[in-house]
Design brief:
About 35% of the residues lie in helices and about 25% in strands. It is α/β, with parallel strands linked by helices. It has a single domain, classed as Alpha-Beta Complex (Spore Coat Polysaccharide Biosynthesis Protein SpsA, Chain A). The strands form three sheets. A nine-stranded mixed β-sheet has the order 5-4-1-6-11-8-12-10-9. Strands 2-3 form a two-stranded antiparallel ribbon. The chain has a two-stranded antiparallel sheet with strand order 7-13. Strand 9 and strand 10 form a beta hairpin. It is globular, with a radius of gyration of 20 Å. The model has no long low-confidence stretch (mean pLDDT about 90).
Length: about 290
């Protein structure tokens, strides 16, 4: 039985939707409360049982490597000031996982970013997690995909039904439900207009992919947006091998979108014991002011 041992996190995008904040700061390092978004992704990967993680980086992404590296000077300062809880947290971050890095020299699209992982992955199935998508639930989203992969031994994609007006933002499945929440994919299309979309089942930012995707990506030309789209390569893979969609359990936040980012920040803060009380009172006062009269 094939096992998934490695994960890829593409983090080479420009983050244009968050300019000017991302002019010199990677969007993946924007904090949700006090933790960068990419750290949530890495912790989900570890909680799912995968410890070998490749991050695809690009220009101005050095702070990602610095964040997960050991920080000797900071540790000395924290120790001298007796801030032992913060010291332990900083040390924990530096020891989270075996992280590897490859640079995508040109921002040619998600498909090209995944292709940059081919030497690291070799000839084995692998996970892909996008840093724009945070998912919270009882069982990590990636673990749910891994559990299905163990049964089907074929490519698995996380999916969610989206409102009609959002269909043109995502890769969309043409699929048949085989069992509750599990879909056998017949076709995929990247960001279709609503009138030609085969469904409202949208691809979210989690995948388990067979290595056959790499030679397909090598032959995949630019698609939507002039970029090499992973969805286009998956469409070809679907003609050769079975692909399944999994309607995962959990709440998904699109933190690559400003509204989604704000929603995640508010809800994550409300889940914090050290913040929830005071923050809830603040929100209550804002709502009272906003809706009075």
């Amino acid at each position: 039985m094939k096992k998934v041992r490695k994960a890829v996190i593409p983090a080479a995008g420009r983050g244009l939707r968050f300019l000017p904040a991302t002019k010199a700061q990677p969007k993946e390092m924007l904090p949700i409360v006090d933790k960068p978004a990419i750290q949530y992704i890495i912790e989900e990967t570890l909680d799912s049982g995968i410890e070998d993680i490749l991050i695809i980086t690009g220009q101005n992404k050095c702070s990602i490597e610095n964040h997960f590296d050991k920080s000797v000077e900071l540790e000395i300062v924290l120790k001298e000031q007796g801030k032992l809880e913060l010291l332990a947290e900083v040390q924990r971050i530096g020891q989270l996982a075996d992280l590897y890095y490859v640079r995508q020299k040109e921002p040619l699209g998600l498909g090209h970013a995944v292709y940059c992982a081919r030497q690291f992955i070799g000839n084995e199935p692998f996970a892909v997690l996008l840093g724009d998508d945070l998912v919270r639930g009882t069982t990590p989203c990636l673990k749910q995909l891994l559990d299905l992969y163990e049964k089907v031994q074929s490519t698995v994609i996380a999916v969610m039904e989206v409102p009609p007006e959002h269909v043109n933002r995502y890769g969309i499945l043409d699929a048949v439900e085989e069992s509750q929440g599990v879909y056998r994919v017949k076709d995929l299309v990247e960001k279709p207009p609503l009138e030609s979309a085969p469904s409202r089942l949208a691809i979210m930012g989690r995948y388990i992919i067979e290595p056959r995707i790499f030679p397909i990506l090598a032959e995949t030309g630019p698609g939507a947006g002039g970029e090499i789209q992973l969805t286009d390569a998956l469409r070809q893979l679907c003609r050769e091998q079975a692909i399944y969609g999994l309607a995962f359990q959990g709440k998904r936040y699109d933190v690559g979108d400003k509204l989604g980012y704000l929603q995640a920040t508010v809800e994550f803060a409300l889940d914090r014991l050290d913040l929830a009380g005071g923050f809830r009172e603040y929100l209550r006062s804002v709502c009272q002011e906003l809706f009075k009269g």
